[in-house]
Amino acid sequence: MILVWGSGLYGNVDAVPGIGRVKTNFGHLYYIPLIPTGSHFIFEESSSDRRGVPIGLSFKSIFTAWLRVVLGFLAVATLVVGFIEIADKRMARWHRRMCCGSGFHRHVCCDQEDGILHPSQLRPSQNAG
To answer: Is residue 109 part of a domain?
Structure first.
């Protein structure tokens, strides 16, 4: 199993145009910021180098980083639940269409709009025929 861990700057807040912004250095696991180790005012940042000065921990930056993680997980969970609900409704519709054709199955399946009716739940007039 590959374990991705390290440190990185997250929680980009308090940007001052043309001067810099505040970011917090976090220990991360799979790029999810977990443990804040210090905040910095970053003047200049490139792919290989960054210039900045350490400042005290910025709770606004920490909150922003953690909030983005929570909202990301909630977005993924919402999509998963939504897809499950859509698939469940489509399967119920498919089942009604396949089962409710004609004959005995029509009486067994189609007396309830949203589910399968067990033969023991049939009215006596339906059992006779």
So the answer is: no
Residue 86 forms part of a structural domain: no
pLDDT digits 0-9 by tens, 16-58: 898 999 999 999 999 999 999 999 999 987 777 788 999 999 9
User: Domains in the chain: how many in total?
Assistant: 1
pLDDT confidence tier of residue 127, bands split at 50, 70 and 90: very low
Domain that holds residue 57: 5-69
Question: Pairing mode, if any, of strands 50-55 and 32-45?
Answer: antiparallel
Per-residue pLDDT of 96-109, as tens digits, reads: 666 665 555 555 55
d(CA 81, CA 73): 12
